[in-house]
Amino acid sequence: MIKRLLRSSCLLFLLLPVSGYAAEEMLLDEMALSIKLDQTQDYQVLDARSAEAQRNTPIAFSTRYQRTTPVKKGLVLIVADTDAAALEIAKSIPSASDRAVFAVKGGGAAWQRAMAKSSPVTPIPGGFVIPKDTCEQGKPIQELKRDQPQQLKK
After folding, report:
1. What is the bridge-based pairing of β-strands 27-28 and 43-47?
2. Residues 8-20: pLDDT tens digits?
3. What's the whole-model pTM score?
4. Where do the structural domains in the chain lie, given as residue ranges?
5. How many distinct helices (H) and strands (E) make up the chain?
6. Hey, which bits of the chain come out as E strands?
7. Taken in order 130, 131, 136, 141, is the CA torsion positive or negative?
8. Percentage of residues of the chain with pLDDT beyond 70
9. What is the third-level CATH fold of 24-121?
10. Nearest-CA neighbor of 77 among 89, 94, 68, 95?
11. Phi/psi of residue 110, each to 5°?
């Protein structure tokens, strides 16, 4: 009985550095985040910052994080007030073979700096909807096309 307990505790101590290493892999610094943003156009940003931080410095095309927020497939990025909070949320999202979840190291400020470094092409979310009865008939002023930079008509 005592031997089993000692073996279990020794095994636990051996695995602790591995779990810490796995957590570090989930935390993206600004450079790694910029590379990820340049490599993919379609990603989901979950904003888990405080309501005040979300009001003061909103993140474009982000989704406010709650435990019931649906998580899409593909690249998922978590922005929170602290790195520990972002890592905790990233770990709580169920893993899938077609989903990669990462926490942003440095929170909203790091996100803003990484976005400034990334390519100037603004991603257009796939689920863009124009509300009913808000459109005028005639030629559009601007057309938004996926995977192309924003184009203004003259």
Report:
1. unpaired
2. 554 444 444 333 4
3. 0.63
4. 24-121
5. 5, 7
6. 27-28, 43-47, 62-64, 74-79, 99-104, 142-143, 151-152
7. negative
8. 62
9. Oxidized Rhodanese; domain 1 (3.40.250)
10. 89
11. -65, -40
